[in-house]
Amino acid sequence: MTTDQIDTGTIDSAAVDAVADVVAGLRTVYAGGRTRPPQWRIDQLRGIERMLDERENEIVQALAQDLGRDGFDSWLDDISNVKTEAVHARKYVRRWMRRRPRRLPLDQMPALGWVQYEPLGLVLVISPWNYPFLLAVNPLIAALAAGNCAVVKPSELTPATSRLLARLLPRYLDSEAVAVVEGDGHTTQALLAQGFDHAFFTGGTEIGRKILAGAAPHLTPVTLELGGKSPAIVTADADLAVTARRLAWTKVINSGQTCTAPDYVLVERSVRDELVGLLIRSLDEFRGTEPGRGLRVVDERQFDRLSGYLRRTAGTVAVGGGSDRASLTVEPTVLVDPGPDEPVMREEIFGPVLPVLTVDSVDQAIAFVTARPKPLAAYTFTKSARTRRRVLSDISSGGAVVNHAVVQYLAPDLPFGGVGASGTGSYNGRWGFETFSHRKSVLVKTFRPDLRFIYPPYTDRARSLIRRIYRA
Hints:
The chain is an alpha/beta fold. The protein has helices spanning 13-31, 38-54, 56-67, 71-97, 134-145, 159-172, 185-192, 205-215, 240-252, 272-287, 300-312, 343-346, 362-370, 385-394, 429-435, 460-471, and strands at residues 100-101, 111-119, 122-126, 149-153, 178-180, 198-202, 222-225, 231-234, 264-268, 295-296, 316-319, 323-324, 329-330, 333-336, 353-359, 377-381, 399-402, 416-417, 423-424, 426-427, 437-445.
């Protein structure tokens, strides 16, 4: 969203009416029960799989136009991930839908108890610009697997992908149950004002606050997938060559515009110089025959922010540092020991700039991280099981990876989400199905026996019996 406040009074009335008509039509479809059967859900998931197979070239072209992505990178970063999620959901959705028997206490017997999953109804997916296809369709997969109708609101900052989603999703999905609504922040305001049964937002923390404000009047539940400064702690006993390669790679994926990318590195002093040298070597190897080539970022606003970090830093530029506004490119950059209060260390970087800070111990690294807002992810590179356990125990983060980074998103059976300022709620696989479902508790009693002493007035003997039953 681009506005500072959620204020539907500022939106054109015709646009509000158009959004209201879309929402009303979807609510009518949901009320008819079409989306609840498992076969409908499976058909939608198969539709997404077909779309990926048949329209890969169009998806790649849209991402290239919006983000300057290489075709293979778009397949690797977006298309293959969506395919994995759709296939996983299709295979397991019937199992996820089964009711789950629960044990009941003695005082409730005879009875049966279970939890059953029902769709929430009509849900809203608000997707970001950094992975405009992946982060629109993956939450949609979860919403459809759970049996909901859905509105997808793509980012206006990636117009080619937004138009592509608006064109393709109605062709491959039930067009009366899924709608794509394009527009800017005003459109998002108009949508939230309709009062959805759930809203799912991926983006920055500040906009996340505005989404919550817009959802509050209707008490719309919200899942927030945000970001934050995800640290990487490198200990002296780590395999530094592998560590450097993995940090460098995950930092330049999508030009560093990845919410789970390692935002900064805390490395023990005794191996800092060696790690920095290996990071430089890895980045040079990744760039191949074009060592001076920068990485494109999405727009001038992001470019100005990143280049501003490089101009104002007190750290040492070990490699990179160059930028070109005409092409919106920033060179992969390693900054050694910038000031901890610089903007590059206070704000989420979201670009190909990697600060490396020196620490004297793991204790100091943990203290540095825990003094700051809880990150979306925390990465530890170590051979020590003791250090691993310590970091996992002492640092609160949305997720954690040992000896790699970013790959946690690729595991459908692991929940993906934040904590504190990095987000609320989670998704991926079954966790996404549950996010978009209501877990209804059901207790079924028989008419007989119907013991009279349970009802008032209570005799002394009845009171004694009831106490014994409830203590059992």
